[in-house]
Specification:
Layout (H helix, E strand, L loop, with lengths): L28 H6 L4 E5 L2 E4 L4 E4 L2 H4 L8 H13 L11 H11 L8 E5 L2 H18 L7 E5 L8 H6 L16 E4 L23 H10 L3 E6 L15 H12 L2 E5 L13 H5 L5 E4 L11 E5 L1 H10 L17 H17 L1 H17 L7 E7 L2 E6 L7 H12 L2 E2 L1 E3 L2 E4 L7 H15 L3
Parallel strand pairs: 3-13, 5-6, 5-7, 7-8, 8-9
Antiparallel strand pairs: 1-2, 2-3, 4-10, 9-10, 11-12, 12-15, 14-15
Helix pairs in contact: 3-11, 4-11, 5-10, 12-14
Length: about 450
């Protein structure tokens, strides 16, 4: 399939819709409804608005459309699957695509993370991983391990487990005390590492927070430590050199399950299939979503160590349900078909390798923005980067205004507070990078 730029045969006037009924997620709804940013079509690297304006997608949708938009292979696979089998109850029944996709995913995961549990989102993957960790310790006779360790500035989805692990205040502040028994290590965004491409030299010692918590609460009470290898949603916090390795060693020494949340990092974003492989550190559990289906169908998964899986299985009576957990749409036929077609595209087009090859040009181009008055910091690894801007007024106000102006100028980017995150599809070429940086440069000069 080619991804030639196409022209939208569309309305020159915006669509006329009622804006009252739909409550949008993670959006200042009143602001949006005063000035809607509607997208009606997408292909390759581009989106088109309801006014016919062409917008380069610099965030791969929401870090998920790694193979580019409008992939006919995926649409055809989903359509064929739904015509053949649209749904089967996932409890005590199965269909071939579930097992086929699990095998394909396990071929890509590091180490012995060869047991795959399907869910419908990254949020569900995180809550599932929490349950797996608890069930594992119960199965091995250490049921007192029911605490979790996370980090400041962490994002682990929006279900109550993930919100409890969250280290981003606006994801927590309206929802009460959340779950008990969760402590947060310090984040790794150190001033000494500002404007560093890749991993900073300073900060590996921050992993010692896990030792402090093990001594404070008792390592025998801690079930798991959750970490995004690169903290994505908060703004691409790349781990310092040696940091993940030290967390791995501390978990091993204390019987703590190490969980990598790879919902954003996974499927080629760091130059390898998963960030665990890029950084050479293998966790015990790994969550994924987004790029698993190229964003075309809702799906997530947890990759589970054979050791953990077999311990849980072995503790259950013969014929019993080993793990009382799952969702109505776990391993749904449509997303499974999308996942298989997506993995085929990644392999056939060598998109992970393409991303790795483009990364130096991508990062160097973004670093050319250093020195602009609005820019406060640059961070990046692989095909994921963030630009902090100096705040003006209330936190996040300037960042929100920036992402709106960028869209109007032809570039879609995700903003978190006063930070914009750049994460283009892996089909991107140098010319697309040039356009991204040019629009950023011109727009940053106006705020």
């Amino acid at each position: 399939m080619t991804h030639a730029d196409t022209t939208l045969r569309a309305q020159v006037a915006p669509l006329q819709l009622s804006m009252d009924e739909y409550w949008m997620p993670f959006t200042p709804n009143r602001d949006f409804k005063r000035e809607p940013k509607m997208v009606v079509r997408a292909e390759g690297m581009y989106l088109w608005s309801d006014r016919g304006e062409k917008i380069l997608d610099g965030s791969a949708g929401l870090f998920c459309v790694n193979a580019g938009h409008g992939r006919k292979e995926i649409a055809d696979a989903v359509g064929a699957q739904l015509r053949e089998l649209d749904f089967i109850a996932p409890f005590t029944r199965g269909h071939p695509r579930q097992f086929e996709l699990a095998t394909r995913v396990a071929e890509l995961t590091p180490g012995d993370l060869n047991r795959i549990f399907f869910v419908n989102s990254g949020s569900e993957a995180v809550d599932t991983a929490m349950k797996v960790a608890l069930a594992y310790h119960q199965a091995r006779g250490q049921g007192g391990r029911n605490m979790f360790i996370s980090r400041e500035r962490a994002y682990h989805g929006v279900n109550f487990g993930g919100v409890s692990l969250a280290g981003m205040i606006n994801n927590r502040r309206k929802f009460g005390p959340t779950l008990p028994g969760i402590a947060h290590m310090r984040h790794t965004h150190l001033q000494e590492n500002w404007y560093t491409q890749g991993q900073g030299a300073q900060g590996a010692e921050l992993a010692e927070d896990l030792v402090r918590f093990s001594n404070l609460y008792g390592a025998e009470n801690i079930a798991a430590c959750f970490v995004e290898p690169i903290a994505g949603s908060t703004g691409c916090l790349v781990p310092p050199k040696g940091y993940l390795e030290r967390l791995r060693a501390i978990c091993d020494a204390n019987g703590i399950v190490l969980v990598f949340d790879e919902v954003i990092c996974g499927f080629g974003r760091t130059g390898k299939t998963f960030a665990a492989q890029s950084f050479g550190v293998t966790p015990d559990l790994m969550t994924m979503a987004k790029g698993l289906t190229n964003g075309a169908q809702p799906m997530g998964a947890v990759a589970i160590s054979e050791r953990i899986h077999d311990t849980i299985m072995g503790a259950a009576a013969e014929g019993a349900v080993e793990f009382f957990h799952g969702y109505t749409y776990s391993g749904h036929p449509g997303p499974c078909a999308a996942g298989l077609a997506t993995l085929d595209i990644y392999r056939k087009e060598g998109l992970f390798e393409r991303g790795a090859a483009l990364s130096p040009y991508f990062l160097d181009a973004l670093w050319s923005l250093k020195g602009l008055p609005a820019v406060a910091d640059l961070r990046g690894y692989g095909m994921l980067a963030a630009i902090d801007i100096h705040p003006e007024g209330a936190p996040g106000r300037r960042g929100h205004a920036l992402q709106k102006k960028l869209f109007d100028n032809g570039l879609h980017l995700k903003a978190t507070g006063d930070c914009v995150i750049v994460s283009p599809p892996l089909i991107a070429e140098k010319t697309h990078v040039d356009v991204i940086v040019d629009i950023l440069r011109r727009t940053l000069a106006t705020i």
